[in-house]
Amino acid sequence: MPNRRSLVAYLVAGLSLAALPTAAFAQEKLPVVASFSVLADFVKQVGGERVGVTSLVGPNGDAHVYSPTPADAKAMAAAKLVVINGLHLEGWLPRLIKSSGTKATVVTATKGIKPIEAAEEEHDAKGGHGHDHGHDDPHAWQDIANARIYVADIRDALGAADPAGKAVYDANATAYLAKLDVVEGEVKAAVARIPADRRKAITTHDAFGYFVKAYGIEFIAPQGVSTESEASAKDVARIIRQIKAQKVPAVFLENVTNPRLIEQIARESGARIGGTLYSDALSDASGPAGTYIDMMKHNISEIEKALAAGPA
Ligand SMILES: [Zn+2]
After folding, report:
1. Beta-carbon neighbours within 5 Å of ion ligand 1
2. Is the pLDDT at 8 greater than 90, yes or no?
3. Quick count: other Cβ atoms within 10 Å of Cβ 218?
4. 0.85 exceeded by the pTM?
């Protein structure tokens, strides 16, 4: 009998050992590629431990203009899901999808978002031809109401790609959406503390159209909604006139654009540089905007500090 008992113990131990590789296999992460860091963070928040996400454009990178690497093509080929912004943000992506031969489902995370049109009135007023009229502004994540739609789209896509994890994705998304509600309240409260006549600022490129519409701070930019085309000398001169005429209190640097243009505008207009806003990319994990929520908190805190107090 003792022999038999030890045999059972041995078998049980053996079974649990044998079960280990299977368990490890079951926990293999769902490979997801996101086109840029903001989307990668949403995927992480919703996917949690079940998902391994690769961001093509990394922290502080410019998602408008990007040259994919061989490693990107490899990640694409291995992905089950590719999450993109759409609205013409990632002009370089269709070629990568094709050349990588990926069989992944491509999810457009802005599905269901009402795009706003890129502001091109200045060019239109000059009767310029060849401009892409009615071009959608891709920076929809700058409105937290839209972030909710991104998160819901990603939650649904993850649940479809990995049905066994659906309950986890649903629960993670619900918890994250509640956090977004809190941040949205903080942003609105901060804007309310800024005197109405000081709710205006300058950034390098037109990345804050959705933020303007949602929260009522006016952002003027010498460069359009993409960083692909440079600001003309005429645009820069117009911005400098506008800063002086409207007493715009501050100009902001952006993490994804060269600081030179804003430094020149500050110098020539006398406006103060209010800090760096994270527009199209998160910072790295150790920076002030390692997640979408930290990005929104950092931006509104910089905006409030620069606009709320004192004369320009
Ligand atoms: Zn942009």
Report:
1. 207, 280
2. no
3. 13
4. yes
